[in-house]
Amino acid sequence: MVESIEVSRITGSEDEEESVAVLTEARHLENITAPNTAAHSWRLKERMKTVSVALVLCLNIPVDPPDIVKIQPCARHEAWIDPHSMPPAKAIEAIGNSLQKAYERWQPRARYKKSLDPTVEDVTKLCMSLRRNAKEERVLFHYNGHGVPKPTTNGEIWVFNKSYTQYIPLSIYELQTWMGAPSIYVYDCSNAAVIVKLFEQFAEQHEEEWRKGNSGNSSPPPPSFRQCIQLGACGAKEILPMNPDLPADVFTACLTTPINMAVRWYLLQNKGKLLHGLSLDIVDKIPGQLSDRRTLLGELNWIFTAITDTIAWNTLPRDLFQKLFRQDLLVASLFRNFLLAQRIMRSYDCTPVSSPSLPTTHQHPMWDAWDLALEVCLGQLPGVLRSDDPYPHVHSPFFEEQLTAFQVWLDLGHQHRLPPEQLPIVLQVLLSQVHRPRALELLGSFLTLGPWAVNLVLSVGIFPYVLRLLQSTARELRPLLVFLWAKILAVDPSCKKDLVRENGYKYFLQVLSDTSMPAEHRTMAAFVLGVIVWEHPEGQRVVQGSLMPLCLEQVTDPHPPLRQWATLCLGRTWHKHPDARWAATRDNAHEKLYTLLEDPVPEVRAAAVFSLGTYVSSLTSRERNDHARSIDQTIAVTLANNVTHDGSPLVRQELVVALQYLIQMYESSFLGVARQYFRDETPHHSNDLSPLSPQASSSSTDSITSPPPYSTSSLTRYFSRHSNKQLASPGQNLGSSPDSSFNEKVHMSPTMGGVKRAVSTHSLSSIGSSGMFSGVSSLSYHGLYCKLWQTLVTLEQDPFPAVANLAAQVIDHLRNKVRMSISKDNTEHTRVESAPGTPVNRPMFIVGESPPSHGEATPPRARSRNHINHNEEGENNFLKPLVTTEFVEWSAKTFILPRQRSGDDTPTTPSPRHTFADRSSNSRLLAESEERRSVGTHKLDDQVFVHRNPGPPAVLLFHPTEPLLTVADKTSVTIWDVEHSQRVSHWNNNNTGSSCISSLAVLNPSPPSVPPTNTYVATGCDDGTVRVWRGAFLLSTSPRESLSSDHEPPTLLTAFQPTTDVNPATRSVGLLMSWEQENGTLVIGGDSRTIRIWDIHAERCTAELPTGGDSNTVITALHSHQAGPWIVTGFSDGYIRVLDRRLPSSRCVVRQWREHTSWVINTHLLNSSQATTKIITGVDSGEVRLWDVRQASSEQVCAPSHEMTAMATHANAHLFATGSVNQVIGVHHASGSFINTIKYHEGFMGARIAPVSCLAFHPRRVLLAAGTTDSYITVYGLSRR
């Protein structure tokens, strides 16, 4: 029974550990870079319009051309007019009018000119007149040559003489000259392909002649005749169909009246098969209008448009599709109908041609869908004709079926498949109110597949439709449209101009203000509005007044992404927009953002820092007054105090970017601080600031632009003493005159060239006092500059490289400025010395004003009492950033990247690690339980692993579930596989200075059956930094590969400084960590008297618990457990204190004992339940005691016998082990009984172990790891002897 209870408890604990994972968010696993959306050029370079149409009809009714022998009966109808039913003159006029009406259905606003049976002169005048009126727009030339001979092989078509007695040739070369470009030509005649081919040759000839005639002259570009479009009825040596059931101009009928022609051809092809009782006469009786989709004829036209668009989309290259089907409405209609002509005329042995050439589409599968739609419509046509209802027909299921096909494509996945062919149909469905919601929903699902899907949708031409839908008032469409627009703008931000031009931004303002909308959709609206205002002055101007109050309301929303994007939207709105900044100032927007600096979500905190940074940089020098400067400096102090040691590198990077604007604005003041700092640092470091030699320093301090004359180490001492003190609360007044009085005191000092400071130590130490910013204090301003400079120096030493690199770039910028200023100062000093009687120890500016910028002569009229740096571009220009991040662009990945596959879909491969991994979870736990139960009958001295570590071990830690041992020396970490005696990984911890690793933790331990992708190692150093490494437990498939130098080392996931109390100069135990996986909490202590509790999910400190120790004592041992509220600490004076984290900080110490009299080595809670009351502790004298939280005294387990250097406790097995400098390891039971000692290594003539430096037990198995000063690591298990 006991056994089953224990296994159940341990299994439950493991399940709980597996249920929580930290630091697995995208900000840790991805590079913070802008996504590569690669927006395609879906926008048309230029929209064109066909404004003029020339209808040239050469029919010569009733005379047939001499080279064509017509059959009887023969096709007669031209433009659906029978020319033999009326006199010839009226017939050709009627045909021309009918053809014009057919064209007007597709382009009603064009200018139409008819030329009936023309001469060469008629064609010339017509073409030149149309080109002159069209200017740069397109002109269409329609040629019907049914009454003249076929075109010649010389590239000539035929017209008439004035008396109609001769056929006169008209060269296409001449026609090109008259028509100009751009133009479109339609040839409805036999042998049309000959003209199409020769047209291109003539175009090249025109260009060649232009080049010869305009060589060396700056003339307009040559005519682009080769870009003209041509449509021909048939190929070379082909004649037009003569079937009497067809019109004579079947090609023109397909281009201008496609529905009539398609229905007629369908009836001819299916006569007597499926539809009975339908004659060709019924074609003209189909009711309705082409433009009314509710009617039968309109629905057929709608379906036909969708099908031909789909065929073209799936067969043409994207750029050609854009040119032919999206650039010009008339051209698009003609080419849709040209696809029908290909299908119909090929059935009569004619091959229509075009330039640019199109692939054959007459057998595309979508034509079957068209035939089905025709059959459904024609099947109900007789009943429709008998009905009096205006809309009696049953609507075709075509669009519903195509949406279903699109949904099937989405459901079946998209990897390694062609894009869905239904996209153009979805575009057409958006026109229908009935199917629109479903179409938008499916379209949104498609856009989630990634940027390629967005580019595909935009290139198909959906943008004008979704832009027009923003005028809709339907509430049910709001979530769908907001989602679509968020995806579109994330991939192609240029669409924001269209939203501003069409007032579409108002739609998203309504969504953002609608509290009944889900927070996710309001987040998308905030993102869309943020894109609209970013780097877009017009967008900022029109949106500003309504947007900022809305965003300020949303920054307190419970939904973190909404808080983040509302904040980013604010920052983008007032970026380089002074009017928006002043409006925000009236609403105290910056103060409302201060609360977000403590937000539990790092992305929200980073967004707040970003927005405060753009708030500071949103004014030019000329627009910045005293009030603005006061606010800017308050923001700087608030950021420095609250963000410098934020747990997220994301936030700290944004801090560097925000502070750079303050540094640039007050550059001359910061140069003074930086100059002194570099002078102090140069003698101790490499001479990277070469102008600051002793001679240069001596001369520069006598310069009129010298910085405050501190002694060599005074500024450094000031930094170290006050780097973590609070300067002022955000609401305090900063005054209006930085540096004036301070510079007065400095320059009036009689010891300008010496090392004596002009300002007293008391004054410097008062910088961190609460009254520092009360009133206009000259010293307070210098304290501000020193504080911000120290913040920048701290960030330059940040444990996370990306943060340190950004800060280093800003500091390097100032270093270069200092070099330049000192060179100029030396020149100026030489000039001043040559002038007799010049007082070198007094300032050359009026008291109460700021000193001029270093090395610059400032005329009196240009002096500024505000001491603001004016950049090189001038006062009206905004500051150019020295460093930038891509945090905001990276944040938009949420709206760009494809949706992730669920965890069930992700294949997992078993880890090739240990024999434990091959067992089931329950059998493994039973084995561990049995192993712990045998502790009383077996000694713990079986040497199962021994290996030499790369460095002397300082800290040991076992993996919580597997026999993997993490070993840390001073600067590096090694992981050993104990069972296979194999090194898993080794890496350098990237310590700064002389800091050393002092503690370890394993985060997100995974069970053996799961690859440890997200299992991390955290290292704590005695400089107060924590680094988290990823990939430390990833093993190679073979031991040889894992030991090779090519094995990829772990990567730094994150790093932060959880405490600033640890001082490496007074090093003792360093930083101590206690990790609680279940709640993601890291308890921090060591070398201080304060316990800090960090929420690793939020990456911020959630509590500071004072321990109440004396000022000369520090925490030397620390332990906590996730199952209970207790934190046990041991101190350097022997005190043991128990803290309850649930209580207020003033009452958190619930128990303390003083029975130990020396340094506490180890403290440990014996059990892992919430009712834990037993604590075991050990001190360096060798004494070990067992405590009960409920009792006031303890029980001595081990009396002092030898100096203890290390101690470890096995909470589940109730064991503890001690190590000493006497080269002995003692193993004891928690009750006090002695188990065994370890003095020698195993083997014949085994050597004595070296002095013990560290010990560690495996949490579940009975394994003891010992590290000794000779760099050996030994692991002991239960002896089976």
UniProtKB/TrEMBL annotation:
**Where do the WD repeats start and stop?**
1012-1029, 1073-1104
Q: Which GO terms describe its cellular component?
A: cytoplasm; TORC1 complex
Protein's GO biological process: cellular response to amino acid stimulus; cellular response to starvation; positive regulation of cell growth; regulation of autophagy; TORC1 signaling
- Protein's UniProt name: Raptor N-terminal CASPase-like domain-containing protein
Q: Which organism's genome codes for this protein?
A: Petrolisthes manimaculis
Query: Sorted alphabetically, which Pfam families does this protein's record hold?
Result: HEAT, Raptor_N, WD40
Q: SMART domains this protein is in? A: Raptor_N (SM01302), WD40 (SM00320)
- The chain positions of domain Raptor N-terminal CASPase-like read 47-200
